[in-house]
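Section 5: illustrative case.
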């Protein structure tokens, strides 16, 4: 694939979902899939699927749909899943430890090279074969290894300071699990994972569903879609 194709952020977020569905279809022995079935399995309507895939693929066949192997290969190439992206995690707490130990990242080309923390009781240890290093060494390792992706799992009060240090050292993308909105210069991408907000949304739905059930009303989740 020549160059970098510019696509909408929302489309980019949906492409890995399509890829995961295609891999499942291959495991089921399928050869072709329609945009309708792909959308049904992925949770999007078929018009959205066609619009998203048209950014990177025009190989659908009338009456058959998409050839799954070729479409999966195209998505893997576009998303960089065939390449290895090195990353660092800052924060060796429970969440950072869980992320560092998650085996599924390898299938998406993500390689955690080190975890950083300020707790002397954790420094020098490891999570599997991933070393836990002092935060003071973070900028040097980022520069030395050319790391471009950082994952933040620290408390909110320390997140911005660490973000500044990471960006100054060369980080271009941050996966942020801290409960704050980070300030970064133009050209640095931040993906926020607000666990508290997600939990609040789910809790709201459970309460509303339980209340509606008691009152004999139907609830399809429309009130929380798009939250």
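Designed sequence:
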């Amino acid at each position: 694939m020549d160059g970098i194709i510019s696509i909408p952020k929302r489309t980019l977020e949906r492409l890995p979902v399509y890829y995961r569905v295609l891999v499942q279809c291959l495991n089921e022995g399928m050869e072709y899939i329609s945009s309708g079935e792909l959308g049904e399995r992925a949770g999007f309507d078929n018009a959205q699927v066609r619009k998203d895939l048209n950014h990177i693929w025009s190989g659908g066949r009338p009456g058959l749909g998409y050839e799954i192997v070729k479409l999966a290969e195209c998505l893997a190439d576009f998303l960089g899943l065939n390449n290895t992206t090195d990353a660092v995690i800052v924060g060796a707490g429970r969440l950072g430890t869980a992320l560092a130990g998650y085996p599924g990242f390898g299938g998406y080309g993500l390689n955690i090279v080190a975890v950083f923390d300020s707790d002397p009781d954790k420094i020098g240890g490891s999570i599997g074969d991933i070393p836990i290093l002092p935060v003071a060494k973070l900028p040097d390792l980022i520069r030395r290894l050319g790391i471009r992706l950082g994952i933040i799992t620290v408390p909110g009060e320390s997140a911005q300071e660490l973000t500044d240090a990471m960006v100054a050292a060369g980080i271009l993308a941050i996966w942020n699990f801290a409960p704050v909105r980070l300030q970064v210069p133009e050209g640095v991408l931040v993906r926020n994972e607000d666990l508290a907000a997600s939990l609040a949304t789910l809790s709201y739905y459970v309460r509303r569903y339980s209340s509606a059930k008691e009152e004999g009303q139907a609830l399809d989740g429309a009130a929380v879609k798009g939250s």
